[in-house]
Each structure stands twice: as structure tokens, then as C-alpha cells.
Amino acid sequence: MIETVGAGAAVVAAMFGIAVSEGVDAARTVHVVAESDSSVSLGDPIMLIPALAPIIVGLLILIPCIRAFRERGDRHERCTAKVDGVVSEVLETSDNDGTLWSPVFSYTVDGREYSIESGTWSRPCKLHEGDHVTVLYDPFDPSDAWVKEDRGAPILLIAFAGAAVVDILAGGALLVAWVLNQQ
Q: Which residue ranges run through the membrane (predicted)?
């Protein structure tokens, strides 16, 4: 069965590899041609899978990103005391593309030394052993801290959240095309 759809749905279908051809009376028709010569129209229930899959995957990525942004915001609210710190060590690891580095930061509060690992690996190394940094820590728990110059994690969160939003929008566009084709 081949159903007539609007040009917008045809464009969305074409983006996802669904064959688009001219129909009767110059209306656009969209169909998927299988090897067995059967066809599936955009309005068939099976077409919900390509619409819902990116939405579900996008949400599975976006929800932890939102949670991490909130935790980061909470940490920034708690960590109000400021102290000078230093990159005390640069951890090194290798993968198939070469070497990756991650700094370890040390700082002292009330005569007690603390250290925190960046958790972000980069190529090339952004901070070097001996570099001075600003550490913001929780005055009630000095081991809870973050480093102002360590910007790797927020960039990764933004990248993953952006990819998740694009995924959700693509699935939403397919879902809208499917719903419009039902009418």
C-alpha cells in the first residue's frame, strides 16, 4: 500500500533512506521497497520504530546529562571557599590514537593536603605539572571540590546533551510525519 503524503514528510522520509517517488496527479508518495517487492508506507505501524527509537535513545542520553548538570550546579553552590592549587601530577594512558593525559590537582586547607583527579582525558595535555589553578571547595567538607580551569567535563556534557536533543528532534520529526500520514 502506498499513501500520499505532503512534501515535508517526503523530505523527512528521504533523510532516513526511505525511497521517494512521484505519484499520481504529481503528488509525492513515499514507500520503502523491500527485496521481496513488498512495500511499507510511512503510515504503517512498523514505521513507528524509526520514529520512536531515536527519541528513546535521545532521552536515555539526555536524562543522565541533565542529572550531571544539576549535580555540577549543586557542587558549585556548595563549594564557595577558594584556595590556590597546583597540578601535582599528570596521569598518562595510551589508546590506538596515541597518548592521553589527565591532571591531578592538589590543594591545602587548614594544613591538610587534598587532591582530586580531573576525570577528563585530553590530547594534547591542557595543564602541566606545576601549573597553578583555582580550587573551589566546600567549607564544611574540603574534600568536595572542583577546579575552575578544568573545563573538559562541561564541554563533554554539552556535546552529549546536544547530540541527544538532535536525536529527539529527528525522531519527533518522523513521528509527526507518521501522525500526519494517519489523517
A: 47-69, 155-180
143-177 tens-digit pLDDT: 999 898 877 667 778 889 999 999 999 999 988 88
Please state, in angstroms and rounded to a whole number, the distance separating the CA atoms of residues 31 and 4.
Answer: 10
- φ and ψ at 38, to 5 degrees? -90, 160
Counted domains in the chain: 1
Which residues in 128-149 are b (16+ Cβ under 10 Å) and which e? eeebebebbbbeeebeebbbeb
CA pair distance 103, 128, nearest whole angstrom: 7
Distances (CA, A) of 92 to 97, 128, 168: 13, 12, 36
Distances (CA, A) of 180 to 8, 39, 54: 10, 19, 19
Question: Is residue 146 a contact partner of residue 85, using CB atoms and an 8 Å limit?
Answer: no
Is 104 part of any domain?
yes
* Residue 37 contacts residue 19 (beta carbons within 8 Å): no
Q: How many Å apart are CA 49 and CA 46, to the nearest integer?
A: 6
pTM of the model: 0.58
